[in-house]
Amino acid sequence: MSDASKKLKVPPPPHPRHRREPLPGHRPKSIEEDPQAHERVKTILESPSYQQADQDVDFLNRDEIRGNRLELDYLKPELLLEQHSIRDTIVVFGGTRIRETAAVQREIDALRAARAAEPTNTGVARRLEIAERLLAKSHYYDVAREFGCMVSSQRHDLVIMTGGGPGIMEAANRGAYDVGAKSIGLNIHLPHEQYPNPYITPDLCFRFHYFAIRKLHFLLRAKALVAFPGGYGTLDELFETLTLVQTRTIKPVPVVLVGERYWRQAINVDFLVDEGVIDPEDRELFWFAETAQEIWDGIQHWHRVSGEPLLAPPAD
Asked: What is the average pLDDT score of the chain?
């Protein structure tokens, strides 16, 4: 100790957590003072009111706390995406039922065996018919996987983002996984148990409570939306994006519909124009593609024309 410290009589710093002598409240009231005190304190400690607010799940789930839950639903993924330096994404949607060919073929083989055992079972016949239609679309799994691989190979900071589920979403995440690139999955809490697909980067797989916040995160960093054949979920995200671009609520992004034959049957945009409920220019908010290369080439062309190319031009 220096002479100056001795002269000033500076006490040593206290321990950051422990005291030499505990404060009165650090000990429960003794049974010698009140034999019933222990049980009373135990009842107090177990009371919901005594739980710390941020650890009280029942409290956090109250209707009055919905605003806080919305904020947390937004903030957790936002902070982690920033932490991982995620700036630009390519969002891929598509049907959860469109699986790789071998998986669908196994289901068809089992259904054919079931139909042979019960030729009059109309339920089995219908399921077989649907499975055969899904088999005809299973090549889209390969296209989505190739596209995920292609994008992830071009720019390490251009990241595939999906809804985190099976089918087309799995395929896009898997393509990134194939080349050792990170990819994102935005899963959602549903009443029944569901699992994320196994190809998402673990630190970039999120589960949301609110669909609205999940939709927000899909578009915050999107440089393109690629929609493969799918059902209500795919249509929901597609029309959400088209509406926001149509109304210029967000900065326009390229929207690619993969599988022209499917989409022309699923959505009759020409009919909507003819009926006067959308304008002819609204047909130009998207285009069709069939292959991974067509999707990627179209997105790059759109961004070059917009003056914001996704890839740096080749050096002279």
From this structure: 93
- Asked if CATH classification 3.40.50.1110 holds for the domain at 73-98+138-306, the reply, yes or no, is no
- Give, in order, the Cα–Cα distances in Å from 256 to each of 92, 95, 298: 10, 15, 8
- Alpha carbon distance 170, 228 (integer Å): 12
For the chain, percent of residues with pLDDT exceeding 90 = 77
DSSP assignment of 47-89 equals SGGGS-GGG-HHHHTSGGGHHHHHHHHHHHHHHHHHHTT--EE
pTM: 0.87
- In the chain, CATH 3.40.50.450 covers 73-98+138-306
| Residue in 253, 237, 258 with CA at minimum distance from that of residue 285 | 253
CA gap 223, 201 in Å, rounded: 20
Q: Read off the tokens for 99.
A: 């699986």
Q: What's the rounded Cα separation, in Å, for the pair 151 and 269?
A: 29
